[in-house]
Amino acid sequence: MTSTTRGPGRPPDPERETAILDAALEVLAEVGYDRLTVSAVHKRAHASAKTVYRRWSGKEELMTAALQHAVIRAGHGSGDVPDTGTLRGDLVANLHRPTGAPTRNLTHGLLAVAASSGELGALALELLRSQEARLMKVILARARERGEVGDDVDAMLVADVTRGMTLQHLLLTDEPADAEFVETLVDRVLLPVITAGRSGV
Fold first, then answer.
1. What is the pLDDT of residues 30-39, one digit of tens each?
2. Are residues 92 and 191 in the same domain?
3. What is the DSSP letter of 9?
4. In which residue ranges does the UniProt entry place its DNA-binding region annotation (predicted)?
């Protein structure tokens, strides 16, 4: 992982750092990586340029730290994972989770960053995968407790299929998945993938 560059002076304030990293993600969602500037980030965070440059040497190092921050937060999880009482219901409810314009814009921004090489691109890819993987692990664990699935279901594979299909839909339509798309994805793709081993396929 890239270490941050720190100059002499008072120790970093964790709350201030978090505010700056959150601001960096907000600006990324609004303008994309190419148009993002350190100036826009420090103004959004109500911090001075000196504060930002005391911690990070420039745009790439700042955004690497911001994506590391987002990956860790996504891994620990925020928000509720739907529990409807059935595997199908949980999958449908998960795909119906609200995604407003900021979320869609951030996804577009992450996809652009993911196309780049090096640590920054790798972190963007990890962030795109990590949140869906966390949710899917919880959903499948509940289904396993109910006896709906076995122990051999690959949560990451199911998460990747889910993310791949929903990202394609987002890129083609710039709209969240509607009910017809969600139910088709669950019934014709996800459930067959999840239950393939149990059905002997």
1. 888 889 999 9
2. yes
3. S
4. 37-56
Dihedral angle over CA of 103, 172, 91, 129, nearest 10? -60
pTM: 0.68
Separation between Cα atoms, residue 65 and residue 51, nearest integer Å: 15
Give the span between the Cα atoms of 121 and 105, in whole angstroms. Answer: 17
Which residues span the domain enclosing 89? 81-198
Q: What is the pLDDT of residues 100-143, one digit of tens each?
A: 555 666 777 787 788 776 888 888 888 778 778 888 999 999 99
Mean pLDDT confidence for 45-56: 94
- Indicate the number of domains in the chain: 2
Q: Residues 131, 63: one domain?
A: no
Using the CB atoms, write b or e for 35-49: b if 16+ within 10 Å.
ebebebbbebbebee
Any alpha helices (H) in the chain, and if so which ranges?
A: 14-35, 38-44, 49-55, 59-76, 87-95, 101-114, 118-146, 155-173, 179-185, 191-199
